[in-house]
Amino acid sequence: MDRAADAAVAVGLGQSEAAVQAARLQGRAGREHALESERRVAYTQFLRAADLFVRTVRELPAIPHESRKDLLDQKVTGVVEAQAGVAVLGPPAITARAREVLKQSLELEKLAVRRAVLRSAVSALEHHWCPRDAENCEDPHHGSAFVAWDLLARWGSLEDEDRWAQLDFLQFVLQESHALTMEQIDQVLDVANSVVCWDLMMGGWLRDPLLERFQTLRDEFADAACGSLGSPVI
Question: Which residue intervals of 90-181 are DSSP H helices?
Answer without folding.
Answer: 92-127, 140-154, 160-177
